[in-house]
Amino acid sequence: MAQTADVDLSTLFSLDPAENRRLANLKYFVDPLLRLAVQYRMDEEIMWKISNAPWGLFRAYILCSDLFAWGLADSEAVLVNDIPKLAKAFEDCEKVDAFNTHWGTWLYCCRKRGMRPQGAAYTHIDPALWSLFDATGPERRVDAVNPYEPGDYDPIEVSDE
User: Fold this and answer.
1) Which domain holds residue 86?
2) How far apart are CA 11 and CA 2, in angstroms?
């Protein structure tokens, strides 16, 4: 079993301010976020960036391309106070169906924005979870960025032929 390196927090206040920020970022943000990523297999939905600041600030984003608008590359930031909200989204999906937890990232994004997915995205979401997504915001009108009603998009029917 792999050993993890623990930081001796008794020395925290003797460190310089940049090191204090780095350790706090690791303890309260990076560690819990990566534990969620492993637990719910978020290998394709999460991306991160480490800033050039002296303490290497870690920033994380959930990919949500095409979730809200047709043909849009998009992501939603995850902040330290969002970790419990992200965990709750996974747990809510798990309550409906233990095998549908992978929709937790999209549910988190919808809840954070207070917006339902575009209609075409519903085609890819298990119908048992639709009520969770419907509860994230008001019903959306069909328009250029949301060209389908929920469930009406058929990727096989829409082709270049």
Assistant:
1) 12-134
2) 25
